[in-house]
Amino acid sequence: MDDLITNQPVVIDNGSGIIKAGFAGDQTPKCRFANCVGRPKHTRVMAGALEGDLFIGLVIFML
């Protein structure tokens, strides 16, 4: 049984909006999360605004 678990291939689907990952042979992915990468369109001048050149993950929805 341990050989079956340790030798199971992992499948990663890097789609345009959602990344899905799971094990080969399963009917559904084990996890799904948003594929979000963003860059600021304008220079931020407000105090307390998020700073950086690149934002990854759900933090882009807080911009």
Automatic annotation (TrEMBL):
InterPro entries the UniProt entry points to: Actin, ATPase_NBD
UniProt KW keywords: Cytoplasm, Cytoskeleton
Extent of the signal sequence: none
One Gene Ontology cellular component annotation held by this UniProt entry: cytoskeleton
Keyword ATP-binding (UniProt): no
Location(s), subcellular: Cytoplasm, Cytoskeleton
Family: Belongs to the actin family. ARP1 subfamily.
Protein name, UniProt field: Actin
Annotated organism of origin: Anisakis simplex
